[in-house]
Amino acid sequence: RKEVEQDPGPFNVPEGATVAFNCTYSNSASQSFFWYRQDCRKEPKLLMSVYSSGNEDGRFTAQLNRASQYISLLIRDSKLSDSATYLCVVNGHSGNTPLVFGKGTRLSVIA
Amino acid sequence: DVKVTQSSRYLVKRTGEKVFLECVQDMDHENMFWYRQDPGLGLRLIYFSYDVKMKEKGDIPEGYSVSREKKERFSLILESASTNQTSMYLCASSPGSYERYFGPGTRLTVT
Fold this sequence. Notes:
The complex is a heterodimer.
Chain A: E1 4-6, E2 11-14, E3 19-25, E4 33-38, E5 45-50, E6 55-57, E7 60-65, E8 70-75, E9 84-90, E10 100-101, E11 105-110
Parallel strand pairs in A: 2-11
Antiparallel strand pairs in A: 1-3, 3-8, 4-5, 4-9, 6-7, 7-8, 9-10, 9-11
Chain B: E1 4-6, E2 10-13, E3 19-25, E4 31-38, E5 42-49, E6 56-57, E7 64-70, E8 73-78, E9 87-94, E10 101-102, E11 106-110
Parallel strand pairs in B: 2-11
Antiparallel strand pairs in B: 1-3, 3-8, 4-5, 4-9, 5-6, 7-8, 9-10, 9-11
């Protein structure tokens, strides 16, 4: 099983739609989880951290399921500007272990 | 705002040339990283450094070396460039183990 797995997409959704991405991770000792966003030909940027209790930032909701080892990102009321690749990121099992990046899920929001 | 700069956005080199990619961060971060990103393969860690003059191999260090003589600067060196090193190279810095601040990337083409 790969360390971090994501559906590569692309997800093509109309404006205003709700879309959800899932990501699975293999290291059950992972403690920290993130979603990064990468626009075309740009660098990745942190979108949000994922907390055990789940967290929300405007139209974005992130959830963690430790038992099943997956995290999710829900985007409500999609905007054209949400079109990007979303990277699932998980830390290693110790404080100094580098982050492990998923390959990303591509989202295209269509007018 | 954290700023991570990379010496070139685009670079074209010939096979066998020695290539230096420079990265500078202005936030006094201890940790710095070099990744390459290729279609279908995602972000892969080449080398990282947790302190001046320290370096650790990442997942794909072969064909690369690094130098960190000053805290703010982390250099990636391709001793003898090969065509399979054509890629997007991303530098990142981090104040701790987690969040990464990426530079804009250098698109290297080796002919």
